[in-house]
Design a protein that fits this description.
The complex is a heterotrimer of chains A (217), B (199) and C (180).
Chain A: H1 4-7, H2 10-28, H3 41-50, E1 54-55, H4 57-65, E2 71-75, H5 79-84, E3 91-92, E4 108-112, H6 117-128, E5 134-137, H7 140-149, E6 152-153, H8 159-174, E7 180-181
Parallel strand pairs in A: 1-5, 2-3, 2-4, 4-5, 6-7
Chain B: H1 13-34, H2 39-44, H3 52-73, E1 87-88, H4 89-106, H5 110-118, H6 122-149, E2 153-155, H7 159-163, H8 167-191
Chain C: H1 18-36, H2 43-57, H3 59-64, H4 66-72, H5 83-101, H6 117-137, H7 142-151, H8 155-172, H9 176-179
Classes of the chains: A alpha/beta (217), B mainly alpha (199), C mainly alpha (180).
């Protein structure tokens, strides 16, 4: 038995190795870690602290305009609200259905709700389930409306603010919003109808059923 | 240790392209070492003279399969982060048949034809040109075939999920099938007069 | 196995033991999974190339086509700045290195004795075209579908592997003159 192994040809040694590894595999268990993940609370609080779990409205708008398709945008509100208005390319996922919704753990996921509470809850839920790349739209849809759809320029704006606003105007128009110059500050934004849904026509907006680019061959 | 590194955001897209190049070098190197830059050697597989294609391919598959399995079991790799090409069973089977057909006519597959072309084989270069034209044809007829292309979707599914057999047992079964196949291949090569194609 | 004597070192060196080169290939694939979480590929790079070409000549036409558009969708970067494109460039480099080290780089046409050079080249072209169509229909080729998916027990990949071998053996008889 002692000189059994060295006597074998290389091919047989390799075959024996493969056989042993295969045999152990029967008893080694399931390679999928499943849903019993332990949360690294320290890591989580660090993430929250550094706010790297956020995507600003401007960033998201940029992504959509550029036609980036490497992320999934999830709308956590009700169907009625979704049908009234949603950010282009978003998919409707009520919070209760989030666990059953087909998401990949390696996908970049951006969440938004009306304010920020629902998306924060969903963020925690997904992180607990082992999804790594989950982001929230900072300030939710409210912020989106303020910053992207109806940006305002105060009358006493600095030159920097004006240039930023000029840039924003284009973005806003792309999403069918209406930028406002001057005017009284606060009450203008109070009741503006959301733009119609079919608005992002110009440019290279991704089509509704956008696909993630294949990673395969 | 958490792998896949890229999915944990250890580096960005630009670095990943450098890694792609380095991994490609390894891929091309071993393809050429195996003799896959030679159309005669590849085609000989289908006349039972030289079963190198089968041996190399399945050795590669079981090596990677066993490696991925153990890395995941000991918790160094998160298998759910690994990309799984979605299954569309009928178009993939028909595509496979076409590919086999093209293989035996042309003598290469896309990866091996790269190695063949770069080691000076003119047929490999022409074959590469053929692939480009073929993909162009597919692109042009895509509106006509897109329904078929997207038919019979099964989602991202593994054999383990399909047959409801534990992953580890399947790993064992595939290894056993491969070893059995290798033994049969060695036997067949001896029996059929061992016309191994050399460079 | 083919440990032929090293006395004659002219001519090209013999190929490696298939199981060793297979293990090498498997380890490269494993490395790709460990580092990137994805496997290898080849035909996808050519799709990016074709999509780029079509979009350069007829941008409207390319945009209207769902297949090309998949490779062009991300307008933040060139479709050629793609993982698979760089990987295939690596394959070209790696193949050249291995071939050069073993003295196997030679301008030649691989064929059987009973077929003319132009006949073989025609076959290579037609085979490549069929392969291109098949690879796209199957969402991958022998590298991207068979090797890569095979190692993670992907259902479609194993159906594909069986189909490739099945298809090749089915038609091998009709093309034997090319090779034997």
């Amino acid at each position: 038995m002692k000189n059994f192994f060295p006597k074998l040809s290389l091919n047989k040694k390799l075959a024996l190795l493969a056989f042993i590894l295969g045999l152990i595999a029967i008893f080694a268990g399931n390679p999928y870690r499943g849903s019993s993940v332990t949360l690294d609370t320290k890591e989580l609080s660090l993430i929250v602290d550094k706010t790297v779990d956020h995507v600003s409205a401007e960033e998201l708008a940029d992504w959509i305009i550029q036609g980036k398709s490497d992320f999934k945008l999830l709308d956590l509100r009700t169907e009625k609200e979704f049908n009234e208005y949603h950010i282009p390319s978003a998919e409707l996922v009520p919070l209760a259905e989030l666990n059953q919704y087909p998401l990949l753990r390696n996908e970049k996921i951006v969440l938004y709700s009306e304010g920020g509470i629902h998306s924060a809850q969903a963020w925690m839920l997904l992180r607990a389930n082992g999804y790594k790349a989950v982001y929230m739209l900072f300030g939710g849809l409210e912020e989106w409306a303020d910053k992207i759809l109806f940006p305002k320029l105060a009358q006493n704006a600095t030159p920097e603010q004006t240039t930023a606003f000029e840039k924003m105007k284009e973005v806003s128009k792309f999403f069918g919003g209406s930028p406002q110059v001057g005017g009284a500050t606060e009450e203008v934004s109070s009741k503006k109808p959301m733009p119609k849904l079919e608005m992002p026509t110009g440019g290279s907006a991704p089509t509704a059923g956008k696909k993630k680019k294949k990673e395969g061959c | 240790m958490n792998t896949p590194f890229f999915k944990y955001g250890l580096f960005g897209d630009d670095v990943s392209l450098v890694i792609a190049f380095v991994i490609g070098i390894g891929f091309g190197f071993f393809l050429e070492r195996a003799g896959f830059g030679n159309g005669r050697k590849l085609a000989a597989q289908f006349y039972f003279n030289d079963l190198t294609v089968f041996k190399v391919m399945f050795t590669a598959i079981i090596t990677a399969m066993v490696g991925i399995y153990y890395l995941s079991v000991i918790g160094w790799m998160d298998l759910s982060l690994v990309y799984l090409n979605p299954t569309y069973i009928v178009p993939q089977t028909i595509g496979g048949l076409l590919l086999g057909f093209g293989f035996v006519i042309g003598g290469y597959c896309p990866g091996t034809s790269c190695v063949s072309a770069v080691t000076g084989k003119i047929d490999g270069m022409v074959y590469l040109l053929g692939i480009v034209v073929g993909i162009f044809i597919f692109g042009e007829i895509f509106p006509l075939v897109s329904n078929f292309y997207n038919s019979t979707p099964m989602g991202q599914i593994t054999l383990s999920q399909l047959f409801n057999i534990p992953y580890g047992i399947l790993v064992f079964a595939v290894v056993m099938m491969a070893i059995g196949g290798f033994a049969a291949a060695e036997w067949a090569e001896k029996k059929l007069g061992n016309k191994i194609v050399e460079p | 196995m083919s440990s032929t004597s090293n006395e004659v070192q002219h001519g090209p060196k013999p190929y490696w033991n298939p199981y060793l080169s297979g293990m090498g290939l498997g380890l490269v694939l494993l490395l790709s999974y460990v580092i990137m979480g994805r496997g290898l590929g080849a035909s996808g790079a050519f799709s990016s190339l074709v999509a780029t070409g079509v979009s350069a000549i007829a941008p409207e036409h390319a945009k209207a086509n769902e297949f090309y558009n998949e490779y062009l969708a991300d307008t933040t970067k060139s479709p050629l700045k793609d993982w698979l494109v760089f990987e295939v460039l690596g394959v070209l480099a790696g193949g050249f290195i291995s071939g050069a080290l073993a003295g196997r780089i030679k301008k030649t046409v691989e064929k059987g004795p009973h077929i003319s050079v132009s006949g073989r080249l025609l076959y290579a072209f037609v085979g490549g075209a069929i392969m291109g169509i098949g690879a796209k229909l199957a969402r991958g080729c022998t590298s991207g579908q068979a090797l890569t998916g095979g190692a993670v027990l992907n259902v479609g990949s194993w159906a594909f592997i069986l189909a490739v071998f099945g298809g090749a053996y089915m038609f091998a008889y009709f093309f034997r003159r090319q090779w034997r």
